[in-house]
Every structure is written in structure tokens, then in C-alpha cells.
Design goal:
Length: 336
């Protein structure tokens, strides 16, 4: 670092009586793309802000014969760039206890004065010994602005064609969003005609008591059932029956079925998101996410990645069949 502050015989130190000016400029958050391109001077500490994604588990390791707490996590910026971060000791504990007690939604973390570490060509950002300060979902300008950009980001992707579509018809592609037929939730619930429309809504809750994955048929993606051999009257573990294909299948594919409640200004309804939707959002297959849950000993818990979808806005494409008055969208439309 080219600069140093020297205290000489003539330096006066006095208690700070006035507020430090330029309060709004106290952070200088570096863009993730800049960091990842490794153009940055490794000796200069940096400020970063991002949303916590992926697991963040506290581990105890031994460094120079002393026990030491460490926490790895990934931060995502408003785009799709992700950086790996490492937090030590009390920083690790602070983040871990916050995440443990947090009930869902996005966690935005601002870390000031972090060290850049490049090892074997891989970049991580690490907490300093004492320099780092953490702000987790705090009510400060930087975090509030970041959160605003996050929700705008979702809105802007929904209006330029790369859309989340929710539909019971696997042939619908996101290129064919029926923007000309936009409906509110109350209009959807009160109309009895066959329709294809889109709904602008926020995921307000996930049904965490319902399973978020199922074993699907590799052919038609419908849920398979255990196969009961009619002759022996025993369930054969390596075979499954598919009602869709009306056949016995020997392999299955783990697929998403995330039940959620969505809300707009007119009301609420229930949707189920399948592979097409969820993979677009969290960039992981149901199999990968389940493996990850099992690996971190939380196979029975509802994945945090999915809980992170709560509060986010999407455009849902709905194919509504012609129905009687008993029509209930949650089961008729989307239940496999
Ligand atoms: Zn099938």
C-alpha cells in the first residue's frame, strides 16, 4: 500500500466533537465483476455488499494448534455474479446466529474492510482480524438501496422476456407469455372460461409442511408410485409404476414440486412450481438440492434457497382449463 499515516511530535489528537462528514460515502462497495477479474490490489481492503446464497455452516477447525471458528458463504450481487467469502471467529458466529434466527426472505450482508485472498487462482473475500464491520439486513442506505435494486431486477427481467412461467402445460415456453391477457388473481378465481393468461404476483408464503420434491417418471415427469407385484403382493424396491405412461419404470428422477401461496392487490391463491420454474430461479436441480440438504444433515428441513423465494415478484403464466363452478385452481391446475 503506498500510503501510511504517521503521527509526529506535532500531531494533535482530539475527541471527535462534530459528526464525521460524508457519512453516506463511508462505504466503497466494489463490484463483484471487478473483484472476480482480479484486477484489484490485494493489499487494499474492500467493502462488499450482496445477498447470502447457498449454505452457511459454522465449522470449528484447528489453526496453529488453536481451535478456530470459520464460516464459508457465497454472496450474490444484483446481477448473477457470485463471490466466495470466508468469515473468522466472532464474525462467523455473528452471521451464523443471525441466519439461524432468521425466518425467511433475502439476507443482505454488507461487509466493510474485507481482505482479498487469491489462492491457486481462486478468489475469496475474508474478514480481517479486527478491521471488518458487518451489517446484516441493517436499516442503512446501502442495504435498503440494494434490496430495492433486487426487487426492480426481478421486475425488469419479467418485462424483457426471460420470464418465470408457471403452467400445467409443459409445452408452454417462456417466449410465448400472454402479456395481452393479464389478469388479477380475483379475475382468475371468478372466471369459468378456458383461458391462458398471465398474473403478476408475489410469492407470499411457501407451504413448508408439503414435500418440496417427488420421484418422477423419467418419461412423462408424473409422480411414480411404488410397484406392488400382483403375484407376490410385495412392493419391489427397484420398480415403480407410472399412471401417466401406464407402465412399470425402473428409474426415477427427483423433481421439484414447491407449493406456494401468491398474492396481488386483489387476493391470494395457491400455485405449485415445478422443475421448469424452480431451476430457473435457484439454478440447482431438485436432486442437487436434496443431496446438499442431506450432506449438511438437514434433509428433513425445508431448504433455505427455496425460502428465499418468499417475497419475490414474478409473472406467472396460467393455463386454466374450462371448468365447472367447483373449480379450484390449486389442485385442478397444478396437481400432478
Ligand atoms: Zn410416465
Amino acid at each position: 500500500h503506498p500510503f501510511k499515516i504517521f503521527f509526529t511530535w506535532s500531531t494533535h489528537v482530539k475527541k471527535n466533537c462534530e459528526e464525521i462528514p460524508n457519512d453516506s460515502l463511508r462505504f466503497n462497495c466494489i463490484s463483484f465483476d471487478d473483484l472476480l477479474s482480479q484486477k484489484h490490489d490485494e493489499k487494499v481492503f474492500v467493502d462488499v455488499i450482496g445477498e447470502i446464497v447457498g449454505p452457511c455452516d459454522l465449522k470449528e477447525i484447528t489453526v496453529r494448534n488453536a481451535p478456530c471458528k470459520i464460516l464459508n458463504l457465497q454472496l450474490k450481487d444484483c446481477g448473477d455474479s457470485i463471490i466466495n467469502c470466508v468469515f473468522w471467529e466472532k464474525y462467523a458466529e455473528d452471521i451464523h446466529s443471525y441466519v439461524q434466527s432468521f425466518s425467511g426472505g433475502a439476507i443482505v450482508l454488507l461487509c466493510s474492510l474485507m481482505r482479498i485472498n487469491i489462492y491457486n487462482g481462486k478468489l475469496t473475500i475474508q474478514s480481517g482480524k479486527a478491521s471488518t464491520k458487518l451489517f446484516i439486513n441493517s436499516d442503512i442506505t446501502e442495504i435498503n438501496e440494494f434490496k430495492e435494486t433486487m426487487s426492480k431486477d426481478v421486475m425488469s427481467t419479467t418485462s424483457c422476456g426471460s420470464l418465470l412461467t408457471l403452467s400445467n402445460c409443459t409445452q408452454v415456453s417462456s417466449d410465448h407469455i400472454p402479456f395481452d391477457n393479464r389478469k388479477t388473481i380475483s379475475q382468475l378465481l371468478t372466471s369459468y372460461e378456458e383461458t391462458r393468461c398471465c398474473i403478476y404476483a408475489t410469492i407470499c408464503a411457501l407451504k413448508i409442511e408439503a414435500p418440496w420434491w417427488y420421484l418422477g417418471c423419467p418419461g412423462c415427469a408424473k409422480k411414480v408410485n411404488p410397484y406392488l407385484n400382483p403375484e407376490t403382493e410385495e412392493i419391489e424396491m427397484d420398480k415403480f409404476s407410472c399412471d401417466g405412461c401406464e407402465t412399470i419404470v425402473c428409474s426415477t428422477k427427483t423433481r421439484y414440486q414447491v407449493h406456494c401461496k401468491v398474492l396481488d392487490h386483489t387476493g391470494t391463491t395457491s400455485f405449485v412450481m415445478f422443475d421448469r420454474e424452480v431451476i430457473q430461479l435457484i439454478h440447482k436441480s431438485a436432486y442437487e438440492l436434496l443431496e446438499q440438504q442431506v450432506q449438511f444433515n438437514c434433509g428433513n428441513e425445508f431448504p433455505r434457497e427455496l425460502l428465499g423465494l418468499e417475497g419475490r415478484e414474478f409473472v406467472f403464466t396460467v393455463n386454466k382449463p374450462e371448468t365447472s363452478k367447483n373449480y379450484t385452481p390449486s389442485t385442478l391446475l397444478f396437481d400432478y
